[in-house]
Amino acid sequence: MIKYLGGLLFATLLLTSTSCSSTGTVEKTQKTSSPQELSASPPQMTSDKTDIPIPDENKNISGTVDSLNQFALSLYSQLGNPQDNSFFSPYSIFNALVITYAGAKNQTAQQMQQVLHLPKDDQHLHATFSQLTQQLSQNSDLKIANRLWMQKGQSYSQEFIDLLGEYYQQNNLLGIKSVDFSKDLEGIRQQINQWVADSTAHKIQELFAENTLTQQTKLVLANAVYFHEKWAVPFDKTLTQSMPFTLLDNKEIQTEMMQQKGKFQHWEDSEAQLLELPYRNGQLALVIILPEKGKERDFIKNEGKLKYHLENLKNLTEKKLTIYLPKWTLETSPDLKTALINLGMQHAFEPEKADFSGIDQGQNKLVLSDTIHKTFLEINEEGTQAAAATGVTLIPKGLISPPVEFKADHPFIFLIRDKTSNAILFLGWLTQPQPKL
After folding, report:
1. Which range, 21-30, 191-200, 298-307, is most confident?
2. What is the pLDDT of residue 14?
3. 279, 346 in Cβ contact below 8 A?
4. Which of 96, 146, 313, 377 could form a disulfide with 174, with the two C-beta atoms 3.0–4.6 Å apart?
5. 70 three-class SS
6. Which three-class secondary structure state does DSSP give residue 1?
């Protein structure tokens, strides 16, 4: 069976209404919309791609990529246990929160703006993020989709609906389906889980467990990005052999180590080496930050160290290398909710303070109850297979000389980035290679 690089990013947003009446009033001039008025056709995640025209205005997406990557650095400092492997998708989480942010108001919006590292003047946020997504989608190996399941008969802010339509739906980045959570909750849960499974080559199963959704749920937003590709130069399987890998506690374990000699983009200083391994499509690449032995702990969860070395990606130069890289497989489910709260996004999760009145017609009855993020990653001789899933839940308030050796036989940091935009799609660290699951 051919192995390949596959990446999945998935995110969900659930909204429900409170049973009590709102203390605020809805402006009489405010327009509302129900999901029946919107197209329910989801984007199809197929291998055939058509050119998606990018709007003439606001073509500069660097600001949005900067926000995404700064957000990735912040999450890196919060997610995961230093002793364990870590892997998450900043892009997926950012995607879900940006759309959620569209309906946030007042201090809830201010906190989300700060945590997402958005500029104070963010009026072009959705235009530029939509352009970034469209640009990424030009890669035939990267498939991106969003879908909304909206409660029939529920009124939503026309401004929110128009924003989704203008920047996401009309660009084939969003599909909408009208459902009735109150009458077919289990059927809808299974339907959403099936969409997730189908969108992730069945690497993410049963994202929403029983009792996750309630009959009061009003909206579920799902984001999926699937990437699959092989290395530009595959590793020779006959060279793979068992070699020692030194753990953080200096103990050694035996792991399958892949080997390859060639010219690669590389940089190093007294603390670490950077290696960039390109994939066949040339647009995406795996970047490994390999600390000097004994300095691994200084890098894990250290936002400053990661930022400094990522800035040196611009200093990568072609060198003749002998690479040793372990094969590994891992699955993670980091505590995203706690990370977001620690970063300063408290109000969104507090019934008394959350303000998502930009979604529910100004009634201000919604609150984030939980966020879910699950990942899968397999690195082997032919490529990588990766998957990640994020769930955001709103409920009622209540990188020419003799060969240099790059030997990743001790903990390191890794990421998958888009070389055109420099957007970080996946990020993590490996402290202990795991056997194939």
Report:
1. 298-307
2. 57
3. no
4. 146
5. helix
6. coil
> What are the pLDDT digits (tens) for 400-426?
345 678 889 899 999 999 999 999 998
DSSP H stretches of helix in 247-373 = 303-311, 336-343
Q: Quote the CA–CA distance of 203 and 170 in Å, as a whole number.
A: 29
C-alpha 46/C-alpha 365 separation (Å) is 38
State phi, psi for 413 to the nearest 5 degrees: -105, 145
Model's pTM, two decimal places? 0.84
The letter for the amino acid at 325 is: L
Helix (H) or strand (E) holding 265: strand 252-268
Q: What is the largest CA-CA distance in the chain?
A: 75
CATH of 237-327+400-430, one of 3.90.550.10, 2.30.39.10, 1.10.3470.10, 3.40.1190.10: 2.30.39.10
- Most confident by average pLDDT, 3-17, 82-96, 386-400: 82-96
- How far apart, in whole angstroms, are the C-alpha atoms of residue 391 and residue 368? 11
Contact indicator for 373, 426 with CB cutoff of 8 Å: no
For the chain, the domains span 5-24+59-229+330-396, 237-327+400-430
In 3D, which of 60, 143, 92, 83 has the Cα closest to residue 371? 92
How many residues are recorded in the chain?
Answer: 437
Q: Which residues of 349-372 are buried (b: 16+ CB within 10 A; e: fewer)?
A: beeeebbbbbbbbbbbbbbbbebb
Tokens representing 331? 């699955």
What is the rounded average pLDDT for all residues in the chain? 81
Q: Which residue has the tokens 């003439």?
A: 56
Distance, CA of 8 to CA of 203 (rounded, Å): 9
Give the whole-angstrom CA distance, residue 102 versus residue 257.
46
CATH class, range 5-24+59-229+330-396? alpha beta
What's the per-residue H, E or C state across 390-408? Answer: EEEEEEECCCCCCCEEEEC
pLDDT tens by residue, 15-65: 555 443 333 333 323 455 555 444 333 333 333 333 334 444 445 789 999
Are 284 and 142 contacting, i.e. CB atoms less than 8 angstroms apart? Answer: yes
How far is Cα 404 from Cα 411, in angstroms, rounded to an integer? 19
